[in-house]
Amino acid sequence: MRVQGYLPGGATWDELTDTDDVSPGGASLSVKRAVELGQVLHLSLALPKRLRQYDLDDRIYRVYALVRGIVRRPDDLRVGVMFFGKFPPRGFKERPWARFLLPSDGEAMAAAQKAAASADAAPEPAPRPDSETVTLPALFASPFEVAAAPGPGDPGERRAHPRYSMFLNLTIQQVDEWGAVLQEELTVADNLSKGGAHVLTTLDFSTSDVILLQEADGGFATRAEVRAVIERADGIVRLHLRFLDREPPARLLKG
User: Fold this and answer.
1) Does residue 243 have a pLDDT over 50?
2) Is the same domain home to 223 and 124?
3) Which of these three, 86, 118, 135, is where a domain ends?
4) For residue 104, is it within any domain?
5) What does the buried/exposed string (b/e) look like for 130-169 if buried means 16 or more CB atoms within 10 Å of the residue's CB?
6) Is the pTM of this model over 0.85?
């Protein structure tokens, strides 16, 4: 695997390494260079077709990834990354060195700092100034500031609309009754219709769960009900979702 990172001012660094764990949603790898939570890396690797979301016939798979976990070891770092997609997150072009954080990362970093302090351990590096971070958009300020869900007889049931095979980057969240985020993931839908979608996941969901989803680099957002959780022969878990609040815009429904 070739890893490219970005330094303040626009300079880049490159490193060749190996991955010891990979899935359609991300990978873990070892690097010598120091990295931080939310940093964007550009990866080039020979990934099997069954784990790809695009460029199925290219010899080398090139994907932007976000650093989501770091384990410091004596000689290197073991880094967990989440594949973001063929294109980087919004704001990357202006500041490729910035950290792109999920809405729940602030609480997680504060908890890690507190735990390290109570254990008298070396704390994690302090976050960069706000001007060097970009918070990826939350789905809604409140999960209840949306239209009421359709009733059982309303349109949107499974197979009520034509389905289109595609790869659409999404953020999915599950929240509690107070709006606190329980689970959150950057992932991809590989099948979309006016009434719902098939979404890949590594998280633990159950039938009838209601989640919030948003197009990772666009304006479409809605609540969705989990109608089924399917693990296929390829080992990938897919959520069969029914949209509750709105249909996707026409620009997304391309065969």
Assistant:
1) yes
2) no
3) 135
4) yes
5) eeebbbbbbbbeebeebeeebeeeeebeeeebebbebebb
6) no
